[in-house]
Design a protein that fits this description.
Structural class: alpha+beta
CATH topology of the largest domain: D-amino Acid Aminotransferase, Chain A, domain 1
Mean pLDDT: 90
Number of domains: 3
Number of strands: 17
Strand content: 25-35%
Strand order of the largest sheet: 8-13-9-10-11-12
Shape: globular
CATH class of the largest domain: Alpha Beta
Order of helices and strands: EHEEEEEHEHEHEEEEHEEEHHEEH
Distance between the termini: 10 Å
Number of helices: 8
CATH superfamily of the largest domain: ATP-grasp fold, B domain
Low-confidence stretches: 230-240
Length: 334
């Protein structure tokens, strides 16, 4: 049995090494390679295997089962070849965006209550329509690579107020159109209903949930990270310094009953959302990252999701689930 592990980076990272070690314990051969190393004419790949704690270069047949990162999408020809000849953990198409996150959840029986109204902006009038419907909105780049700033926008005294990092500007209707054209510079943007995510003590709070498949091909929450900012000497980040326990943070900043309810909802909504993503993308998946906001009253809303979430500080947990899921995939091919 052999598993291919495809990433854009030339050198395997911490997670790849941990996965390779666990694969060896389970009797699974592991080969790491990049899309550029695929030879479509010969069906061979130049990759790396782990031997005695050292990565060794090898040439091998392209494995029939491959763990591939959606970030490999830029290598379209190589990905298309793998889609045709291999079983992939991700189809690497129809990837999640903030717009389709709303589409897949707005009509869902349980996810509807935590979905954030979102629309891709065709003109400044879309922003005005959202302001009329929801009073306060934010706009941001559709593509993360183009991300510069988030803009908070609302009406006040017949003027349109734009807040950028706390700096406020006011525009008439005509001036707002000119500001919008200049600010977005013809790049794609989305507009969302604004929800204020903060604790009862007024600390901005966001939550990233890593959800992964296990050996039974079932979704389960691997880790919930806190991301908060405030008057603290050590600020927890989603994927930076090792964050405080999520449960501990909630118990510190919310009534215990509310904190317990948030923890339960995070878990159930995460699993339900992962299942719905699979339906929407029409493919069995292996991992998803979900970003939740939480109001001071403990009300949850989902505002983003990640096709390829980070794994800092949880390499062991993610690798264990990954290898279990590989066993499921390999068994299904026999």
């Amino acid at each position: 049995m052999i598993i291919g592990y495809v990433r854009n980076q030339k050198r395997p990272g911490k997670l790849a090494k941990k996965v390779a070690e666990l694969c060896k314990e389970k009797g699974i051969d592991f080969i790491y390679f990049t899309p550029k190393s695929i030879n479509r004419k010969t069906g061979k790949v130049k990759g790396k295997t782990l031997l005695s704690n050292t990565w060794n270069t090898v040439v091998a047949d392209i494995p029939k089962v491959i763990d591939i990162s959606p970030l490999c999408i830029k290598h379209r020809k190589q990905v298309a070849y793998l889609q045709e000849h291999c079983v992939l953990t991700d189809p690497v198409d129809n990837l999640l965006t903030k717009e389709n996150i709303y589409e897949l959840s707005e009509d869902h029986e349980s996810l509807h209550s935590i979905s954030v109204p979102t629309k891709r902006i065709n003109s400044y009038k879309d922003v005005l329509d959202f302001i009329r419907d929801y009073h306060t909105v934010n706009i941001q780049s559709f593509y993360r690579k183009d991300f510069t700033k988030d803009y908070l926008i609302y009406y006040e005294d017949r003027e349109i107020v734009v807040s950028i990092d706390g700096e406020i500007s006011k525009y008439s209707l005509g001036d707002f159109e000119e500001w919008f054209k200049e600010a977005t510079d013809k790049k794609p943007y989305i507009v969302q209903k604004f929800f204020e995510s903060k604790t009862t003590s007024n600390i901005p709070l966001h939550s990233r949930v890593n959800v992964d498949k296990n050996e039974d091909s079932e979704w389960s929450v691997t880790k919930v990270f806190t991301h908060y900012t405030g008057d603290y000497d050590d600020i927890a980040r989603l994927e930076g310094d090792k964050p405080q326990s999520y449960d501990e943070f909630l118990y510190e900043h919310y009534d215990r009953n509310i904190a317990d309810d948030i923890i339960k909802q995070i878990d159930s909504y995460s699993i339900e959302f992962a299942k719905q993503v699979e339906v929407y993308r029409n493919h069995k998946l292996m991992t998803i990252g979900i970003d939740f906001g939480v109001t001071p009253e403990g009300i949850l809303f989902i505002y983003d999701a990640n096709n390829s979430p980070g794994t800092a500080h949880i390499e062991e947990e993610v690798a264990t689930k990954a290898v279990g899921y590989y066993q499921h995939l390999l068994a299904s091919q026999q």
